[in-house]
């Protein structure tokens, strides 16, 4: 009898849990408290045409890009937003964001935890699945571990002030993969954990590694971590449809072999507006990632990592990005809108011995209920993900490169 009652109780509890989950309201206490559970599943169709690599029988590819889980809600006035992602293609998984939020009134909102760095155009400086060039140097849709305050003294003005102790926690990664990792990722003797330092992460951060200048016979270690970053961002609505803004960032790159830190900076100005249904985003950014190498010299490159891979990034550059999109409402069966878009980035490396980067992405976003499909023809010169020679693009680059191209279809179901 006890076994029957126990099974019945478990069944009832399971039914109650599933009913609550299906209603998207976990642990609800009243009309204001509760949590929603969501996520996404995304697939990629990839066809590449790279001048610096030969095609083979695996081109094109149909891959499982991502699956993710989201929890959002509030309890007793404290908000929670959490997202964890899995990338089967890259063999890694990691947190996207996870923060506690609190509203101090109508004018101040705080986020504590892994939250988006307030810098430049938000949430994205782009419209394509590929982002713009800012993302690949850690300045677009970046997430770190710290605290952020959004202050709105008026309807037209938003001020964001943030402090980040370190980069977001990393997920698993395979040492010895793309790029080179100092001591094969064995940093325990320096008190550095794999999760803090590894490239298994969503947004690009400086991670420990090694670089090799042209003509060098051996690689130089750059055992660097991001620490103590301060951000300030101001955005002002000139009209209901046009925003202008400026951003500043200052932080440390800590070399745990030399036990020294260097201060780094980044600045940006942006505009985001819509005229006659056309959305236009533009941003100028500059960064100075001055850092000390393991041999005590000033390095020309840092290693940045995400998705389990690393590549060289020049320490100083100016970046110019622009993005245009034109959303069009349609009634084509399940398709409710299409949005043609173009993203462009030019990265001007201040060292004249290195070759500049370009990134040009024409495409279209198709919306059909909960399915969002990006169809992009991505082209790049010295763009690290659009090459058969991964790792060089944002470092030394290649002289007079041809355009590499990748036809990419990303199909995502969001729930």
The counted number of beta strands is: 22
Main β-sheet description: 16 strands, antiparallel, barrel
Widest sheet, order of strands: 1-2-3-4-5-6-7-11-12-13-14-17-19-20-21-22
Radius of gyration: 23 Å
Q: What's the order of the H and E elements? A: HEEEEEEEHEEEEEEEEEEEEEEE
The portion of residues forming beta strands comes to over 45%
Q: Quickly name the level 1 CATH class of the largest domain.
A: Mainly Beta
Q: How far from one another are the termini? A: 41 Å
Coarse morphology: globular
| CATH homology-level superfamily of the largest domain | Porin
Counted by DSSP, the helix tally is 2
Mean pLDDT: 89
Plain-language structure description:
There is one protein chain. By secondary structure, the protein is mainly β. The protein folds into 2 domains: 1-31, no CATH class; 32-414, Beta Barrel (Porin). Helices cover 6% and strands 54% of the residues. The chain contains 2 helices and 22 strands. It has helices spanning 2-22, 194-197; strands at 34-49, 61-75, 78-87, 92-103, 108-116, 143-151, 157-167, 205-206, 209-211, 220-222, 224-239, 242-255, 260-275, 278-288, 301-306, 309-314, 316-325, 328-332, 335-349, 357-368, 371-381, 404-414. Strands 1-2-3-4-5-6-7-11-12-13-14-17-19-20-21-22 form a 16-stranded antiparallel beta barrel. β20 (357-368) and β21 form a beta hairpin. The chain is globular and about 60 Å long. Residues 1-30 and 177-184 have low confidence and may be disordered.
């Amino acid at each position: 009898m006890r076994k029957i009652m126990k099974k019945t109780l478990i069944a009832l509890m399971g039914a109650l849990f599933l009913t609550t989950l299906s209603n998207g309201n976990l642990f609800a206490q009243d009309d204001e408290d509760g949590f929603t559970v969501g996520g996404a599943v995304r697939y990629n169709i990839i066809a590449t045409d790279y001048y610096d690599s030969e095609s083979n029988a695996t081109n094109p590819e149909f891959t499982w890009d991502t699956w993710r889980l989201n929890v959002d809600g509030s309890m007793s006035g404290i908000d929670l937003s959490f997202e964890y992602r899995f990338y089967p293609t890259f063999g890694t998984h990691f947190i996207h964001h996870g923060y506690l939020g609190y509203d101090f009134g109508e004018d101040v909102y705080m986020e504590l935890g892994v939250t988006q760095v307030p810098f430049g155009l938000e949430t994205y400086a782009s419209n394509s699945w590929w982002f713009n060039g800012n993302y690949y140097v850690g300045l677009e849709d970046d997430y770190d571990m710290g605290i952020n305050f959004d202050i709105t003294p008026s309807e037209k003005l938003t001020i964001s002030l943030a402090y980040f102790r370190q980069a977001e926690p990393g997920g698993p990664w395979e040492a010895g993969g793309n790029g080179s990792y100092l001591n094969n990722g064995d940093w325990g003797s320096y008190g550095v954990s794999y999760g803090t330092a590894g490239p298994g992460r969503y947004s690009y951060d400086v991670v420990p590694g090694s670089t090799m200048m042209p003509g060098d016979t051996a690689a130089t270690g750059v055992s660097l971590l991001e620490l103590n970053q301060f951000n300030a961002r101001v955005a002002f609505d000139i009209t209901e449809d046009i925003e202008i803004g400026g951003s500043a960032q200052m932080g440390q790159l800590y070399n745990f072999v030399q036990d020294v830190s260097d201060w780094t900076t980044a600045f940006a100005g942006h505009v985001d507006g819509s005229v006659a249904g056309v959305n236009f985003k533009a941003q100028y950014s500059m960064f100075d990632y001055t850092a000390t190498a393991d041999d005590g010299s000033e390095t020309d490159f840092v290693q940045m990592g995400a998705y389990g891979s690393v590549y060289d990034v020049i320490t100083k550059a100016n970046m110019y990005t622009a993005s245009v999109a034109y959303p069009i409402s349609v009634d084509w069966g399940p398709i409710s809108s299409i949005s043609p878009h173009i993203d462009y980035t030019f990265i001007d490396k201040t060292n004249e011995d290195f070759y500049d980067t370009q990134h040009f992405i024409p495409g279209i976003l198709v919306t059909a209920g909960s399915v969002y499909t990006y169809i992009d023809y991505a082209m790049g010169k010295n763009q690290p993900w659009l090459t058969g020679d991964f790792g060089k693009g944002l470092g030394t680059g290649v002289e007079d490169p041809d355009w590499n191209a990748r036809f990419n279809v990303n199909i995502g179901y969001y729930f």
